[in-house]
Amino acid sequence: MADTRTPDSTRRSERSRRAIYDAALALVGEVGYQRTTIEGIAARAGVGKQTIYRWWPSKAAVLLEAFVDLNQQAADALGETAQAIPDTGDLAADLRRVLRATVDELVDPKYDIPTRALTAEGIVDAELGSRYVDTLLRPALQLYVDRLVAAREAGHVRADVDPETALELFTGPLTHRWLLRTAPLTHAYADRLVDYALNGLAPR
Amino acid sequence: MADTRTPDSTRRSERSRRAIYDAALALVGEVGYQRTTIEGIAARAGVGKQTIYRWWPSKAAVLLEAFVDLNQQAADALGETAQAIPDTGDLAADLRRVLRATVDELVDPKYDIPTRALTAEGIVDAELGSRYVDTLLRPALQLYVDRLVAAREAGHVRADVDPETALELFTGPLTHRWLLRTAPLTHAYADRLVDYALNGLAPR
Amino acid sequence: MADTRTPDSTRRSERSRRAIYDAALALVGEVGYQRTTIEGIAARAGVGKQTIYRWWPSKAAVLLEAFVDLNQQAADALGETAQAIPDTGDLAADLRRVLRATVDELVDPKYDIPTRALTAEGIVDAELGSRYVDTLLRPALQLYVDRLVAAREAGHVRADVDPETALELFTGPLTHRWLLRTAPLTHAYADRLVDYALNGLAPR
Amino acid sequence: MADTRTPDSTRRSERSRRAIYDAALALVGEVGYQRTTIEGIAARAGVGKQTIYRWWPSKAAVLLEAFVDLNQQAADALGETAQAIPDTGDLAADLRRVLRATVDELVDPKYDIPTRALTAEGIVDAELGSRYVDTLLRPALQLYVDRLVAAREAGHVRADVDPETALELFTGPLTHRWLLRTAPLTHAYADRLVDYALNGLAPR
DNA sequence: GCGTAAACGAGACGGTACGTCTAGTCTTTTC
DNA sequence: GAAAAGACTAGACGTACCGTCTCGTTTACGC
User: Fold this and answer.
1) How many domains are there within chain D?
2) In a domain, A48, yes or no
3) Cβ within 8 Å of residue B15, ≥6 positions away
4) Which nucleotide does the CA of D3 lie closest to, via C1'?
5) How far apart are the C-alpha atoms of D59 and D24, rounded to whole Å?
6) What's the CATH number where B156 sits?
7) Residue B70 placed within a domain
8) Which residues in chain C have Cβ-Cβ distances shorter than 8 Å to D197?
9) Fewer CB in a 10 Å sphere around the end CB: N or C, chain B?
């Protein structure tokens, strides 16, 4: 039977935790997600397999935490407001800037490969997916909500707009192209999205 | 080394092919994609493993073809034009109708589970992904292109609109919510998408 | 590396020692030797694993000491001479009596299972084997030596007989049948052994 | 669940079987029985673990068969009668010769180590023990029975002697010293055993 | 209609990784 | 400072599948 005793997290080895994060991210980057194995992570981290199984339920969960940790570190390095979408008063310009940056990130293999892996895993595994959304995706989307609310108050956006839906006009298509590879992701595409979404497809 | 001789498809057993499709779809529905194995499909189909390896390169490829076959059958049952997006002259109403139908399909577990599995696999496996897009997704998206081109000619849509980008304002957000489960998929959501995309977020 | 510091035995917990003996014997009786683990003994004794590793080099060593302790207690309960082979003047009768008693003991599962385990372990592990022989077996065999020497002095046994070898004519076959289960261990067998060994196989 | 299907022995790979025997015997000789693992045997034999698990229930069973096979080969090399105890008419001399040969064998590490391991395992595991006795030990003991019966018919042994018991006067003590290492195994000891057993301990 | 060659069902094979178990060590806290 | 508790590295366990490779057994085409 499985070990049903919950381990005592106060006695957890910080050293091992870090080594596992590092090994997991390195391996996914080097050989891809499918060929990254728990045995491989353990060996690379100089850790017993049981130490992984003790603290994580699956390979995907390890990678997710490793990613969250990475983001945390990056966020800590920057100031708090540094990650917010800028508000220059020109909504279109601000969105173009942030969408272009997102395009750049999604195109960079360093982010592309592990993020794809996590996303794909979350698509099939609902439990993991919800943790992924809550810890990584939702905070990123919230930045759009904040900016759109500000724009609405400034009268740059229709008063009846639901920001949760509105933001998906930008991130939805971008994610669609990125994940499904239906067409190349370019800055021009990002700009066009902002144009269409803000001004609509119908003639004015 | 692999058997480099190309098998003679004229001598292929139609019976086995059908049995493999059925077994693959049934197993994915019953135990999920991850726990569906080629051995399991072979056993369920009453077929030797080699018969699968002879004709398909991977589990995902089997499932993809099984899905294509399923769609083919459904399409054959309907008339040819039956799957096109209707053109009543009211673009918004036509889009609402088709998006609502899509929502209904994505919410139905019968389609949801295997489609998720295929999509997730295609996200990670580029080769499979491109076949998935070409055989299943692209034809479906083309229907939007056709309808949007017609709308553009009728002056119901801006003359400068790129239909390939424009259609993603509808399918992108829908796919986003479906795959990532960020929020429930409803008819109201579909309607709102049509409103935002056609009229834009900015005040007129 | 192992903790080379010799622990201070004066501070040793008598309570733990007893609990470990009891747990070890109980477990071997219940689940057999192979499936008795040091972890299991520690858990059952309510003792940390390190407490076992601190004082014993192996599972077999624990069991051996537990057994020695058990014998000690039994011996203390009886008088000192009580365990000697009786000397009624009739060597054959005395040997039959003691061999029959040995048969009874070897057939009793209470002794059979742990003694088998220890013996088997000692056969493979020379170090343990020698401790087993010295602490448990040798004292028992010495009783035969004593009785045979007395018989020799009384002229009931050839003057040139080496008691160390002679005693094995009794214990050797008995042990052989017991360990290898080549044939059932019975009182009749014990009697026959005494007859053959004392009188020889050759016709007189 | 375990694979309950019985494998088809007609399709068994003779090559793998031989390689497994060789690897098992080599490893036991090199690192001892306890530190010989199924993984190690598989790796050394260049064989998948499952191939071992498919055909044998345990490490001990592999070793037993390897040993039986070894004996078979040795027996096939010699003539049929070559392994019988010689009958020169001088029972004592014949027994001395065979016991001395046995001593030599038991002292040779090549036989000592794996035989010890198998014997010890058979002592604890009754099922394996009975297979060990039936396939390896019993045939060897039968040779004594045959010789003793011949001696009885020739009047060199008491008419009332049970050969099954009598033979244990020789093999029992020898096995006892060998397994328990109570004293060194020498030719002199073998000779003394023959003397005592044939002539008895009591004065004539 | 008969021979032959390819596809077939079956499943053994060498492997890899799984998730579990235990060994023996190390660390922290309690008595 | 011994002991309880238990996390740690290490690695074998037995299982599940992988993809390849024979085996006979159909099956269907060309002679």
Assistant:
1) 1
2) no
3) none
4) F15
5) 9
6) 1.10.357.10
7) no
8) 169, 196-197, 200-201
9) N
